[in-house]
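thought: fold this chain, then report.
action: predict
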Amino acid sequence: MVQQEKEMTLAPRPNYRKRIEILGFCIGLFALVAQLALIIQNRQASVIETIIRYFSFFTILTNTLVVLFFAKNIFNRQSSVSFWGSKGAFTAITTFILIVGLVYQFVLRQIWIPDGLQLLVDELLHSVIPLFFFGYWVVYSKQADFDTGSVFKWLIYPIAYIVFVMTRGHFSNFYPYPFLDIKSIGTEQTLINILGLILVFIVLLSTIIFIGKKLKK
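observation:
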């Protein structure tokens, strides 16, 4: 009896974190691949232009960050210079994927009514994955992930995204989101929307850092 108890104690415990990361990776990869297939199937431009447009969505880029973050952890690629392992990366990506969900729920859901597979993919990209990754962050984040300077360096990502989208839109006439479509809503309203978005990024980053520090005291 004692020997059995000793063997049970020495037995390796299930790696629940790894299982969660594999699940998150699989859900995210499925949603991204399915969305690419759908956008190509329903394309209104050439395949190459359609693929460029696919990667012009903040939703796609940020869900890709989530998938790559899970992949890095799953395959244990530890490095002091790792982009994904840098201080602030975990919290910043959590903030950005939450913004994906919030913008969709409060701005885009009312003007977009998908069905079938598109409905499933939309809910995965905009609802399931943001909540899943936020829950993962709540459980596994550490004090080192809340370094304000390191997290705020990631603001370069949404700013660079906006610059890219507006520059490309000027030449291609394609804007992935109606609130950035300067040709439809005008320069003034577009600038107001951009400043509002940047403010949202700053406020939510600050809020997530604050929540993290309180949770991990």
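thought: worth noting. DSSP finds ten helices and no strands in the chain.
final: tokens above.
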